[in-house]
Amino acid sequence: MIVVDTREKKWDHIKTYFEQNKIPFKVEKLDAGDYFSTDQGDVVVDRKQNLQELCGNLSKGDHNIIRFVNECKRAKEKHIKLVVLVEGTSCRTVKEVATWKSKYSKHTGKWLTDKMFNLTVSYGVEWQFCKKNETARRILEILKYDSRGNQGNNDHEGSVGAVRSDGEQK
Fold first, then answer.
1. Fold (CATH) for 2-142
2. Taking the alpha carbons of 132, 81, 166, 153 in that order, is the dihedral positive or negative?
3. d(CA 88, CA 134)
4. Rounded CA gap, 157 and 16, in Å?
5. The pTM is what?
6. Taking the CB of residue 146, how many other CB atoms lie within 10 A of it?
7. Beta pairing partners, 40
8. How far apart, in whole angstroms, are the C-alpha atoms of residue 12 and residue 17?
9. Nearest Cα to 127, choosing from 75, 80, 84, 81?
10. Would you report the helix, strand and coil content of the chain in percent, each value rounded to 5?
């Protein structure tokens, strides 16, 4: 089953995909990320609607950077792989983000790439990119979710299960 964080916003396109493909899901508060599979609790997906949202999450002076970095720290402390999936961009790699130009922020793609790199080094954050119409499928691929109810090989021996915000093991 896929668990979706209660704070996830504007995810109707993902919910519709899950419903049309009979992917079981429930909405519950998560400590880190927006999506995870109850059968593969050592990986979570944190979805960003676009690079602009990510830029806002990483801007100093904003409470968002504190919240986002704390989320990265919690995932690392719990031995959970945090994969940030950025949708709605033509970029396919972090390297390509360096050429991105914001319409709303003074920050450059190079600045954003540096922040992303630092989070990868410090907390093991992985970055992936997709078009909006690919998001739900990509979430399932990252979580190695098989709609037939089988879990894919997670390649993580001795994996640690995800922990809900109330501290209960998933």
1. Rossmann fold (3.40.50)
2. positive
3. 9
4. 33
5. 0.83
6. 12
7. 37
8. 9
9. 84
10. 35, 20, 40
Ordered by start, the domain boundaries in the chain are 2-142
Amino acid at 98: A
pLDDT tens over the chain, length 170 residues: 999 999 999 999 999 999 999 999 999 999 899 999 998 779 999 999 999 999 988 887 666 678 889 999 999 999 999 999 999 988 999 999 999 998 888 899 999 999 999 999 999 999 999 999 999 999 999 998 765 544 444 333 222 233 333 334 33
Structure token pair of residue 98:
């360096």
Cα separation, 54 vs 32, whole angstroms: 16
Please state the separation of Cα 41 from the chain's center in Å: 13
| Amino acid (one-letter) located at 161 | G
Helices (H), the chain: 12-20, 51-57, 63-77, 94-97, 109-123, 135-142
Distance of CA 43 to the CA centre of its chain: 9
d(CA 53, CA 47): 10
**Which residues have C-beta within 8 Å of that of residue 59, sequence separation ≥ 6?**
65, 105, 107
- Check if the beta carbon of residue 2 is closer than 8 Å to that of residue 145: yes
